[in-house]
Design a protein that fits this description.
Distance between the termini: 22 Å
Bound molecules: adenosine-5'-triphosphate, the ligand Nc1nc2c(ncn2[C@@H]2O[C@H](COP(=O)(O)O)[C@@H](O)[C@H]2O)c(=O)[nH]1
Length: about 425
């Protein structure tokens, strides 16, 4: 993903000590900055309806502001229970807006530096943090946020944490009930425990014997789940065999945070929703060798009543039709002989015989300086220590994913290079 330079960016570093306040690149029309009282005050001309009224952006402690088009985002202040950590001043309406904030927000932090990337997301580097929790993105106009704006209205933003290192594309596995999805996934998780993580779905169905809450599913009830869907907590959801099932954004994030590749076991409707989202997964459909064999397996499993078996078999017909036509799935596997099907699955996932089962890209965790500023050179972000001659490179050129879920593929390493101070963007 390229990072372009935007001439209309204003970036402010607002440290704990107000008198170190450094405004930069004020080419935008938002006016001048000043310091007043406890917190910085941001003055600008309100050109709403052609009347220059003047407005004040009074920032709270640990909040800092960044201009994106005609909006000025104030970000931070996560300690304040009355704040959700993000608000923006919309210059076209002259009003403050508290947006719907999707994704998991960062834990409270005191001080950060920001930079606008591609005019659709803000990179936030937490001060005094560790490399595995320092880079966050507030998506303000990415494809995902644009989709959510259609549902919720214009005031929507989404957090996505930056994850260092390679994490492969998530895997969506679909297929009719009883075909063997769970069996194949369990084999994969057992053979490659550090490589894959299961996305634990929510469901309103009752737990089966041996099913554990939080492990196999998050068991919930319909009204709670419907509220959470309304609040935008789900990447996808569907009514399956008379119950509500869904993948929460958090379920996918938890796996990415563990540095693992996420596996989703979801139905065809869910796969379609994920395909339409920006998750960039690989889609695999599992077929039975015959309908009779599917029925046999479902009965042999013995987890459903006769009525439910009939319902699941009935739904299987449509699922098989949808799964095998229309190009929704990248791969279609027939689960006849289990071992043969498992081998094929491993092949698709690039797990040939030479793959080390315990292999995992481990990235060394290191501490960032207490106070930092950001600059950009050759498309790479430079994190400069304010008090020591220490520079760290944040390379976003292989950046993948984003909300909903984590932003993967970041690289971070210290550099001995001297970076000139006349870069085009600073904080
Ligand atoms: N290739 C196979 N040959 C014979 N039996 C199989 C094969 N694969 C799986 N099974 C068996 O079929 C039954 C159903 O498998 P499983 O529970 O993995 O299906 P599933 O697709 O996950 O179903 P659901 O969608 O209902 O969760 C299990 O008892 C399992 O042991
Ligand atoms: N759309 C979604 N479908 C899901 C999800 N979790 C599971 N499923 C699918 O439901 C059926 C039935 O599952 P069971 O555990 O009751 O047998 C199966 O096809 C699963 O793939 C989800 O989060 N979203």
């Amino acid at each position: 993903m390229n990072i372009h330079h935007h001439h209309s960016i204003a970036i402010y570093f607002i440290p704990n000590h107000i008198n170190q306040f450094i405004p930069l690149d004020l080419e935008s029309s938002v006016g001048k900055l000043d310091l007043m009282g406890e917190a910085p005050v941001f003055f600008g001309d309100d050109l709403h309806a052609g009347v220059s009224n003047g407005f004040h952006l009074k920032l709270k402690e640990f909040e800092s502001a960044i201009v994106v088009g005609n909006k000025t985002y104030a970000i931070g202040g996560f300690d304040d229970p009355t704040s959700n950590g993000v608000r923006f001043f919309d210059k076209s309406t002259g009003e403050w807006v508290v947006p719907i904030v999707l994704g998991t927000k960062p834990n409270a932090f005191k001080g950060h530096s920001m930079m606008l990337l591609d005019s659709d997301r803000i990179l936030i580097i937490k001060h005094n943090s560790k490399s595995n929790d320092c880079a966050w993105f507030l998506e303000v106009d990415t494809r995902y946020v644009q989709e959510q704006k259609k549902k919720f209205g214009s005031g929507v933003v989404s957090w996505s944490k930056g994850v260092i290192g390679d994490a492969e594309r998530p895997i969506v596995i679909s297929g009719p009930s009883g075909v063997g999805k769970g069996t194949l996934i369990n084999m994969l998780m057992k053979d490659f425990p550090t490589m894959f993580g299961f996305s634990v779905s929510h469901t309103t169905r009752a737990p089966r014997e041996k099913e554990e809450n939080g492990v196999h599913y998050h068991f919930t009830n319909r009204s709670v789940m419907e509220e959470e869907i309304k609040a935008g907590k789900f990447l996808e959801f569907a009514s399956v065999h008379g119950n509500l099932y869904g993948t929460s954004i958090e379920a996918v994030e938890v796996v990415a945070d563990a540095g693992k590749r996420c596996i989703l076991d979801i139905d065809v409707q869910g796969a379609r929703s994920v395909r339409a989202s920006s998750l960039e997964a690989i889609f695999i459909f599992i077929c039975p060798p015959s309908f009779e064999e599917l029925e046999k397996r479902l009965r042999a499993r013995g987890t459903e009543t006769e009525e439910l078996i009939q319902k699941r078999l009935n739904n299987a017909k449509a699922e098989l039709e949808q799964g095998t036509s229309g190009g929704l799935f990248d791969h279609i596997l027939v689960n006849d002989d289990l071992e043969a099907c498992y081998e094929r699955l491993k092949e698709i996932l690039g797990l040939d015989g030479s793959t080390d089962a315990t292999l995992k890209t481990t990235t060394e965790v290191f501490a960032l300086p207490m106070e930092i500023s950001l600059s950009k050179i050759d498309g790479k972000i430079i994190i400069n220590s304010k008090n020591a001659d220490q520079k760290t490179v944040l390379d976003l050129t292989s950046m993948k994913g984003g909300a909903p879920g984590r932003t993967r593929g970041l690289r971070m390493y210290p550099t001995g290079l001297r970076i000139d101070d006349d870069n085009d963007e600073n904080t």
